[in-house]
Here is the input.
Amino acid sequence: MKFPRLLFVLGLLFPLGVMASPTDDARDWLSRMSRAAHALNYEGTFVYEHMGSMQSMRIFHGADAGGERERLVTLDGASREVIRDNDKVTCILPDDKAVVVDATGPSRPFPLNLPTRLEQLGEYYDAEVGGTDRVAGHTAQKIIIRPRDGYRYGQNVWLEQDTALLLKSELVDEDGKAVERLMFTTLEVHAGALPPSLFEPQNTGADMVWYTRDPEAMADAQTSTAQHWRVEKLPPGFRHDVRRFHSVPATLRPVEHLVYSDGLASVSVFIEQQSGENAFTGSSRKGAVHVYAREHDGYSILVIGEVPAATVRLIGDSVMRTEQAP
Here is the structure.
């Protein structure tokens, strides 16, 4: 079983400060970070180191009474453009001559998992305010997030001092090693709206094959197959957040997608009927991402997350089929 194509989308500076404030202050910073990422108008360039590779991207983000718009463009490596208009996501892949439109929205925000359920994070993470740095020409406040058990990673984030907008992040594994990094190299926050032209695609996709993931069509597929799945054992703090159906563009075969989150870390479970090909089973790791796959009752189960190996294995081994939706 190949990794689902839906998983597209997807520096060290001199310290100037010292450790300071208590956990409540850290939670306030994280709350402000989440609001800023959705509410501000900004554009910038960032470097994203993920799964052993590094990529530069340009981002444009706008918010108004009509909701959010966002456009991401790769600046090196494989050509890719992702445009989000509220819940509608269009991924343009010129190298593959394909455009994928998903009307059900992204399974995770980009470029970082932003914390939710902040009131519960204190049960599973310790957070504290660190020192200040300079990132992309802005003064940045460092927030350190440490897990309380072995089922999740830690994070270090640097937030713009005035707006709390994310400037830099590190995902830290169980060995204390930074396994994923993101850092803005340029960032400009706008008081007013960005020009609409900045959210228009560079490539119209006129000469490409279009794949549209229609939620109503996938709901029909869900009803017709009547195969639903649940996870019977979850790590502490994780709960079911999203249940969606996708279709693999090459085959249009339905794939059930379950997402579980503790408010910061998230894990995706993909269930697909076996096609007769030799499916990948077992465990693997690439950068921050751990993968665990197994077969069950004629289906391939693939669990992926930026979490320790113990987390994806615990979840993967407890995926069971039920005739009723969870």
In short: The domain at 215-322 is CATH 3.30.200.100 (Phosphorylase Kinase; domain 1). The chain has two domains: 23-199, 215-322.
